[in-house]
């Protein structure tokens, strides 16, 4: 056996850079890390792996310019949040290093390069004796290739589970690579069934998984070979760094330790490593600080739904962990710059956005500290209530409410309850947890099956030129390809087909701009087809979906005519989105980013990230700013250049769009500069007018503006004026500008009338009270005042209950009233009757069924509502019977 090699000492930045450089030297294009927020995949809550950003290449919807790709992709997984801090490897946010082959190299090259990267002195330089590989038993090729590069047979282990399959779509065997960390990490007995590479242990650490995607898992459960075989690999950066830095867990690496050290400063005397319990809290804070920093930086914001709920939950767990360390003040927002400094070499945008990220975290932190106090109050109330019960056990449902609503870890609740001498129903809590996980699982697909390659379109590589930037009619476009019924054909007589021309003026849908519409004519000017849609084919051509009226043939020339009116309206609205985007940044701040758009001929829709609602004043400023640019008659110019030059021009890149070597930079004067491949007007004055029609929230931290321009804006304002005119007629005012003052006057009059009505109702209630309070009945051992009276509703009944309590005229009060087919019941109980065991809540539940309703309340006051006023008297009668039978 060879002597152990001396392990290199590499930082996390060096490991990441070395991995990417290795595959770059082997012909791979380095893809930048995409946003954590999926923009084209609604089935994903977060980008959760490197391959998640590559699916468009693997499913054949897009053919990459280079079939060899590599990346270091930031990812979030939230299915095991409860285990973060308790295990060595669980992270919410992590980086996945990966190399990918889209129909290019396969097993032999992937295995050869993996071994070279791991063992070559020029790269990782690991001792090959410390490496173990698992393979699928039937994958004899993988085993053969591992042996060929120098892996000993006894270091290759067959594992039945080594087959990557997430349902219908691409699947195949995989090979996992494990690093032997040595006997000091061997915490299992030699004969333990998990003590092997691939088992659940700390000694053999999985560092890389190579998936050989070679089959299509069909709906009938069978597997067929894929037309093009792919490679998909994943290497966890945090794990690899822990090996280079000889760290017991991922948390003792340079990716986490600076965060932990900073947290120690906030916790005072509490230090990392002083106890297992404290270490868990430190790790939770370090992990969650990274996750929320990156998530917020990518545009996700705290909320009660979706990914916003995940962020809120992570922030709350971190704050509770801080409390366990004795940190009482807001601290989490102070860790944002620390995260930014750790990751600055590859993610400089974190520090660039730190002020905004800190603002969001600080706001949420302050909010939760108030909630935390509410949660403690609820927990204290639960403990007080259980003192008077027979079970002496806190409900698991109540413990789950503390966990789910207030962010209290179950262990924290149990600790408080046990200190008070009681217990928590563990089984009931686990049942509630299981229900929540089932709901979450049902709300999302367990994993999105990747689409199967549409091989026919991938194979079509006919060049096609888009000419619509300068010309909306092509008189001699040659029809190159016809796809009909998933076959390449030479001619079609009718029906729906997909076609590619050598050149076309039809815009293919992209960047929110809808596709052009229009017609296809033959050489004689005869209509032969209507263009219904245009999308990009996998190799980038404009793929036209057409409805055919007469025969079309490959290699014939045709005239392609775009609907100019449709195109013009879309172009105006597209330019308006650019003006709107920049105006939002100017008014709301640079943290505002486009989160999606739709450019139709009749309106535009623009989604953007923003923390909180947009005030009416700011919305008006945005609208005024857009119109100001229109009235300035700014020239709209387009320049084709390279990315670097475009960035130097100040061009804004949207999302994580992958731009080619050549890019189009669209500028409206000096006001707006963006990368954009869409269609635009030549001067902003063509928009005529811009009018916002609505602004609303559409998700966690995402707002939506809908607007119109030009003729649509005129029609919108004209309709608004007509509505205002009708209102003026109804109010009998001569001038439109007098409408607001007349409405204010009417509102004042209404308010005065409502006050008079309330005063009269109070007087009537008092008169009724004086008579009903005189009618005291005996019900068992209690004095009872009960009756159905005519008042405005529950507020009046509560006022009567206050008067009754002050007068002390009976033990129990039961009142009912009805309004608009609705029934209300109120029960009040004196302190003396409560001591005898009577509770208002119990009594209201016993009689509420008479009004087809339900209710509850405190021991001294309870109320109920229902939809059967006819049952009120029966409810009063049943109240008397209930008291008569009370023991």
Automatic annotation (TrEMBL):
Can you tell me which residues bind Zn(2+)?
Answer: 574, 578, 676, 680
Query: What is the originating organism of this protein?
Result: Apilactobacillus ozensis DSM 23829 = JCM 17196
Q: Which domain of life is it from?
A: Bacteria
Q: Name one Pfam family in it.
A: tRNA_SAD
The leader peptide range reads: none
Protein family per UniProt: Belongs to the class-II aminoacyl-tRNA synthetase family.
Please name the GO terms of the biological process aspect recorded for this protein, alphabetically. Answer: alanyl-tRNA aminoacylation
Report the catalytic activity. tRNA(Ala) + L-alanine + ATP = L-alanyl-tRNA(Ala) + AMP + diphosphate
Q: Where in the cell is it found?
A: Cytoplasm
**A GO CC annotation given for this chain:** cytosol
**Cofactor(s) listed:** Zn(2+)
What is the uppermost EC class here? ligase
Query: Do the record's keywords include Ligase?
Result: yes
Coiled-coil intervals: 736-770
| Entry's free-text remark on domains | Consists of three domains; the N-terminal catalytic domain, the editing domain and the C-terminal C-Ala domain. The editing domain removes incorrectly charged amino acids, while the C-Ala domain, along with tRNA(Ala), serves as a bridge to cooperatively bring together the editing and aminoacylation centers thus stimulating deacylation of misacylated tRNAs.
Q: Where is the Alanyl-transfer RNA synthetases family profile domain?
A: 10-719
List, in alphabetical order, the Gene Ontology terms for molecular function in this entry: alanine-tRNA ligase activity; aminoacyl-tRNA deacylase activity; ATP binding; catalytic activity, acting on a protein; transferase activity; tRNA binding; zinc ion binding
What this chain does, per the entry, is described as:
Catalyzes the attachment of alanine to tRNA(Ala) in a two-step reaction: alanine is first activated by ATP to form Ala-AMP and then transferred to the acceptor end of tRNA(Ala). Also edits incorrectly charged Ser-tRNA(Ala) and Gly-tRNA(Ala) via its editing domain.
Query: Lineage in the entry?
Result: Bacteria, Bacillati, Bacillota, Bacilli, Lactobacillales
What are the TM regions of this chain, as residue ranges? none
UniProt-listed HAMAP family: Ala_tRNA_synth_B
- Tell me which UniProt keywords the record has, alphabetically: Aminoacyl-tRNA synthetase, ATP-binding, Coiled coil, Cytoplasm, Ligase, Metal-binding, Nucleotide-binding, Protein biosynthesis, RNA-binding, tRNA-binding, Zinc
Q: EC number(s) of the enzyme? A: 6.1.1.7
Cofactor binding, per record: Binds 1 zinc ion per subunit.
Where this protein primarily resides, as one coarse class? cytoplasm
What name is this protein filed under? Answer: Alanine--tRNA ligase
């Amino acid at each position: 056996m060879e002597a152990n090699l001396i392990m290199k000492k590499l930082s996390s930045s060096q490991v990441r850079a070395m991995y990417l450089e290795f595959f770059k030297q082997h012909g791979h294009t380095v893809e930048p890390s995409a946003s954590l927020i999926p923009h084209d995949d609604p089935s994903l809550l977060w980008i959760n792996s490197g391959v998640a950003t590559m699916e468009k290449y693997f499913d054949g919807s897009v053919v990459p310019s280079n079939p060899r790709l590599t990346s270091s992709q930031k990812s979030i997984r939230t299915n095991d949040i409860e285990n973060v801090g308790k295990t060595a490897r669980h992270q919410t946010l992590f980086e996945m290093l990966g190399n990918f082959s889209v129909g290019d190299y396969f097993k032999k090259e992937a295995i050869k390069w993996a071994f070279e990267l791991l063992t070559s002195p020029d790269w990782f330089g690991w001792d090959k004796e410390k490496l173990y590989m698992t393979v699928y038993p039937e994958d004899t090729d993988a085993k053969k290739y591992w042996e060929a590069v120098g892996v000993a047979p006894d270091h290759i282990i067959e594992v039945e589970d080594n087959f990557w399959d997430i349902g219908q779509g691409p699947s195949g065997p995989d090979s996992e690579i494990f690093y032997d960390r040595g006997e000091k990490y061997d915490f299992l007995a030699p004969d333990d069934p998990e003590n092997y590479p691939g088992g659940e242990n700390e000694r053999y650490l999985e560092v890389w998984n190579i998936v050989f995607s070679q089959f299509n898992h069909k709906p009938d459960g069978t597997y067929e070979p894929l037309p093009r075989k792919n490679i998909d690999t994943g290497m966890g950066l945090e794990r690899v760094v822990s090996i280079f830095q000889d760290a017991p867990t991922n948390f003792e690496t340079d990716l986490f330790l600076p965060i932990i050290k900073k947290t120690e400063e906030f916790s005072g005397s509490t230090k990392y490593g002083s106890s297992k319990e404290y270490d868990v809290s430190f790790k939770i804070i370090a992990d969650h600080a990274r996750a929320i920093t990156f998530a917020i930086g990518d545009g996700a914001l705290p909320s009660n739904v979706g990914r916003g709920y995940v962020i809120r939950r992570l922030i709350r767990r971190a704050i509770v962990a801080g409390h366990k360390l004795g940190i009482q003040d807001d601290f989490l927002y102070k860790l944002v710059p620390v995260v930014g400094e750790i990751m600055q070499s590859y993610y400089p945008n974190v520090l660039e956005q730190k002020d905004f990220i800190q603002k969001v975290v600080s706001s949420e932190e302050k909010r939760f500290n108030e909630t935390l106090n509410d949660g403690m109050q609820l927990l204290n109330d639960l403990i007080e209530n259980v003192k008077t019960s027979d079970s002496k056990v806190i409900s698991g449902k109540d413990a789950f409410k503390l966990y789910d609503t207030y962010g209290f870890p179950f262990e924290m609740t149990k600790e408080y309850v046990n200190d008070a001498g009681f217990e928590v129903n563990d089984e009931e809590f686990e049942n509630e947890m299981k229900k929540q996980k089932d709901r979450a699982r049902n709300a999302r697909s367990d994993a999105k099956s990747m689409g199967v390659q549409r091989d026919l379109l991938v194979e079509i590589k006919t060049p096609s030129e888009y000419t619509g930037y300068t010309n909306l009619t092509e008189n001699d476009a040659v029809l190159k390809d016809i796809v009909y019924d998933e076959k390449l054909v030479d001619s079609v007589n009718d029906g729906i087909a997909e076609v590619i021309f050598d050149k076309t003026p039809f815009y293919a849908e992209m960047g929110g701009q809808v596709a052009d519409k229009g017609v296809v004519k033959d050489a004689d000017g005869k209509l032969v087809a209507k263009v219904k849609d245009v999308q990009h084919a996998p190799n980038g051509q404009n793929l036209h979906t057409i409805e055919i009226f007469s025969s079309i043939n490959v290699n014939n020339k045709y005239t392609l005519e775009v609907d100019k009116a449709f195109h013009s309206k879309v172009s105006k609205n597209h330019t308006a989105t650019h003006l709107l985007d920049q105006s939002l940044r100017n008014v709301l701040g640079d943290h505002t980013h486009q989160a999606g758009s739709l450019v139709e001929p009749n309106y535009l829709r623009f989604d953007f990230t923003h923390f909180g609602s947009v005030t009416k004043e700011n919305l008006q400023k945005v609208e005024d700013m857009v119109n100001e640019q229109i009235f300035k008659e700014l020239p709209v110019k387009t320049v084709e250049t390279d990315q670097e030059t475009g960035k130097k021009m100040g061009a804004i890149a949207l999302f994580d769009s992958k731009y080619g070597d050549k890019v189009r930079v669209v500028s409206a004067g000096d006001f707006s500069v963006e990368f954009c491949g869409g269609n635009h007007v030549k001067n902003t004055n063509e928009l005529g007018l811009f009018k916002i029609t609505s602004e609303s929230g559409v998700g966690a931290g995402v707002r939506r503006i809908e607007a119109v321009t030009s003729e649509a804006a005129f029609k919108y304002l004209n309709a608004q004026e007509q509505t205002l005119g009708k209102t003026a007629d109804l109010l009998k005012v001569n001038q439109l500008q007098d409408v607001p003052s007349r409405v204010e006057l009417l509102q004042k009059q209404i308010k005065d009338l409502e006050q008079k009505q309330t005063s009269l109702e109070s007087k009537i209630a008092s008169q009724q009270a004086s008579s009903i309070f005189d009618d005291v009945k005996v019900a068992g051992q209690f004095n009872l005042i009960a009756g159905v009276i005519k008042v405005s509703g529950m507020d009046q009944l509560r006022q009567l209950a206050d008067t009754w309590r002050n007068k002390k005229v009976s033990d129990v009060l039961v009142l009912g009233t009805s309004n608009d087919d609705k029934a209300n019941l109120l029960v009040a109980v004196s302190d003396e009757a409560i001591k005898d065991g009577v509770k208002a809540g119990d009594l209201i539940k016993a009689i509420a069924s008479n009004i087809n309703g339900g209710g509850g309340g405190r021991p001294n006051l309870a109320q109920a509502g229902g939809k059967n006023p006819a049952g009120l008297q029966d409810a009063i009668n049943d109240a008397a019977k209930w008291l008569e039978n009370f023991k």
